[in-house]
Amino acid sequence: MASSTVDAVIPAPREVVYRFFAERDGINPYLPVDFTLKKPGTPTPNGVGAQYQIGKAGVGFVEETTDLVPGERMEYKIIKGAPVKRHVGIITFTDADNGTLVSYTMESEPILPVPAKVLEFGLRNLINQFIKGAQKALG
Hints:
This protein is an alpha+beta fold. Helices cover 23% and strands 47% of the residues.
């Protein structure tokens, strides 16, 4: 299993940053893929259990929100369509000077053997796309 974490400050209040990440389809204009809600969660559509198709034109994988602590933390896992045994994302939010500190971790265990350093590099690049999207949208 490989893991990568990126910490970055987003220049916006914590509740705004949390909502941007937790309401997954709001990030669509800032990424090269789309998040499409396929199954609503509880108690809100983007709540725990929400499933999103991630990709373009119906091609991609499905992610499910597994934990939400409003304003503090969100977690998700890939449940279908990706060549992984396990993939989890954990995002935490804390107050910081000039905004919100986002700590974004991805842990992944591919089906096929991939060198850990290569996978960690790929995970870091994915996380950075999300961070850059948030900075562009909220900065």
